Target: Cadherin domain-containing protein
Amino acid sequence: MEAVNMKQRWYFRVVIFFLLLHQSTANNFKPHFTTSSGVITIKEDVKVGSMVFVLSASDNENDPMYFSLDSTGQSLFNVGSLNADQKSVNLTLKTKLNRELTSNYEFKAFVSDKQNDETRRGEKTFFVTVIDVNDNKPVFITQPYKVSVPENKTLNALLITVSARDADEAANAAVQYRFSNDSRSNIKLITLWKTDKFTIHNLNGKITLTGALDYETVPSYALTVVAEDTGVPQQSTKAQVVIDVIDISDMPPVFYRSIYIATIKENSPKGTSLVKVTAIDGDRGVNNAIRYEITGGNSFGSFAINPDTGLITVNGSIDAERIRSYTLTIRVNSKSQI
Model:
């Protein structure tokens, strides 16, 4: 500004300069994800609606970011509203996970800044790993378990093997076996620590005989086997193992009396009843059936014995002048031994 005196009149001349600043609205930087990891790990029991991951991005121009997911990502997660920093969003679980059905996913996430319709988009691939939890019980492969064992089976012999599988993994799928308190033998409680009849290997499920069997005492055992995993919390399931004892002829028949005395008139007709001998077999079933026979003293075949009932009858001529007395030897056998 300067002052000029023109004929004693003062004028002031002012020169004004204008500085025009041009602000570029061009979108110069492509958005990019600043999320360091591309791996998302989620336990399979996480509840739907839980926040599981944070997506963050930037375009170096402080513009708000806009996030989206591909179809796989949309099926798994909901994208939340922008966080206060305008650079990130929370992902919440949209659907219940099941590692036993699908343990891994892959999806793409996209980010843009939507500035002046010159949107430029960044993308990143993410990998989802579903972490196992112990949510499955062991399952026995075959049920029911049943085996027949002769009562003279040798000790330490393998009787039967039980097997179970667990759909989980690692420690959650490791199965161990034991007998349960529910194991019974004819109403009598049988557990691993109260009987020496059976043992079960805790890792392979092999059941072996560790005590002598006796069909006449206990003809059948019903054992309850527990299969349990080593996860937390521990899961378990039960199966019944029936062990039927097969009777063998290990108890010879015994006569009720050792001496039988009878009298008979001479010339008694054939078929006349003389005396009935009786024996009993300690076995059961077919092994309990017995058979009688005369093995000595039956001169001239004078007598016969019913092999099933033990009834001795006249079979030939009885003559006191020829033979005044007979001493018969009777043998009895189990039919299974004949």
Notes: DSSP finds one helix and 28 strands in the chain. The CA atoms of residues 161 and 206 lie 4 Å apart. Confidence is low (pLDDT under 50) at residues 18-24, 184-194. Helices lie at 71-76.
